[in-house]
Design a protein that fits this description.
CATH superfamily of the largest domain: Medium-chain alcohol dehydrogenases, catalytic domain
Number of strands: 16
Shape: globular
Order of helices and strands: EEEHHEEEEHHEEHEHEEHEHEHEHE
CATH topology of the largest domain: Quinone Oxidoreductase, Chain A, domain 1
Strand content: 25-35%
Oligomer: single chain
Distance between the termini: 10 Å
Bound molecules: NADP nicotinamide-adenine-dinucleotide phosphate
Number of domains: 2
Largest sheet: 7 strands, mixed
Length: 340
């Protein structure tokens, strides 16, 4: 089968389209024919060997075939697989610990990581969702009671009328965060670069801010929840922009911002009324994907897909995303003929 293979850290050019052996499922796995995958910022962060990627693979990537989001069809099941059968259409996120490997024609998936895809979505639409939308959903739920731990709880829920600001709203995570926050009745402000603002309005953002012209932490406005996917400010700047019981949650950011969110955030959270920090990411959660499946089937949320690339052009897709051009998601279509 054809697959994108990565044997060293570096820019997207290190990826190679190769002919590799088609995998055979173990007893508790299914062989899935991949119809679509999608690229995430996390893919190029792993590829470039950021400090977090090097925990798993100090010298070279831990997984030879990258790619975490998947939409496809079960082709063969191992003898202990009970809940799925050949022909089932699935979606999911095969991030650690599920083995990655979705930039390929086939991948083996443990039964406990298989999730049924929404019936009304194409494979391309479905592949755009699992990773980014689950991250958005889990981070929007950080309204639970604060505790003196490293991480914020993800057991709360947005209340109608709350003022929510999404920083980096025009990307993969952000476009889902805007729509899910709107679904819960929030008043949503989306922050991103100029070219993404019309799209943000079109998916429901009540207000938009162009970060190239305005710093929302200096505007005098206050928010009940700030969700930041690109945190690059001091935690104290964010604190200033929160309402008295406001919450700041950081999905990803600079090393300084991560350090502050993890170590100063819990201190701020237990000594005052504002809460600041990170939510522990739990990829591919069954309940989250069931909830999202219902939202998509009811047309309450739609994936924003900028463009699709064939499997052979994964490197180009990653470059496009990394350069900041993408409005929402970039999808990989896997054709099962000579045109991969
Ligand atoms: N997607 C996932 O599945 C996933 C899972 C776990 C963790 N994460 C983490 O979440 C982060 C974001 O992921 P993503 O997929 O949403 O990335 P993305 O698609 O690249 O989106 C990031 C967005 O932030 C905007 N941006 C860049 N600089 C900004 C600034 N200074 N202020 C405001 N907006 C700014 C970008 O727009 P411009 O380039 O036009 O400025 C882009 O629209 C990544 O670091 C990733 O590791 C993502």
């Amino acid at each position: 089968m054809k697959a994108i293979v990565c044997t060293k850290y570096g820019p997207p050019d290190v990826l190679q389209l190769k002919e590799v052996e088609k995998p055979t499922p173990k007893d508790d796995e299914a062989l899935v024919k991949v119809h679509a995958a999608s690229v995430n910022a996390a893919d190029f962060e792993i590829l470039r060997g950021t400090w977090s990627a090097r925990f798993g693979g100090p010298l070279r990537p831990m997984y030879k075939i990258p790619g975490s989001d998947i939409a496809g069809r079960v082709e063969v099941v191992g003898r202990n697989v009970k809940q799925f059968q050949p022909g089932d259409e699935i979606w999911g996120d095969l991030s650690y610990p599920h083995g990655f490997g979705t930039f390929a024609e086939y991948v083996c998936v443990p039964e406990n990581a298989l999730r049924l895809k929404p019936a009304n979505m194409t494979f391309e639409e479905a592949a755009a969702v699992p990773s980014a939308a689950v991250v958005a959903l889990q981070n929007l739920r950080c309204a639970g009671p604060s505790s003196p731990s490293l991480f914020l709880s993800d057991e709360g829920q947005i209340q109608p009328g709350q003022k929510v600001l999404i920083n980096g709203a025009g990307g993969g995570v952000g476009t889902f965060a805007v729509q899910i926050a709107k679904y819960f009745g929030a008043e949503v402000t989306g922050v991103d670069s100029t070219k993404k603002l019309d799209m943000l309005r079109s998916i429901g953002a009540d207000h938009v801010i162009d970060y190239t012209h305005e710093d929302f932490t200096k505007s005098g406005q206050h928010y009940d929840l700030i969700l930041d996917v690109v945190a690059n400010r001091s935690i104290f700047n964010y604190k200033r922009a929160l309402s008295p019981r406001g919450i700041f949650v950081m999905v990803r950011g600079s090393l300084v911002a991560i350090f502050q969110a993890l170590f100063l955030g819990p201190l701020i959270s237990i000594t005052g009324s504002k809460k600041m920090g990170c939510v522990m990411w739990k990829p591919n959660q069954k309940e989250d994907l069931i909830f999202l499946k219902e939202l998509f089937e009811a047309d309450k949320v739609v994936p924003v897909i900028d463009r699709c690339y064939p499997l052979s052009k994964v490197a180009e897709a990653l470059r496009y995303l990394e350069e900041g051009h993408a409005l929402g998601k970039v999808v990989i279509t896997v054709e099962h003929n000579n045109k991969t």
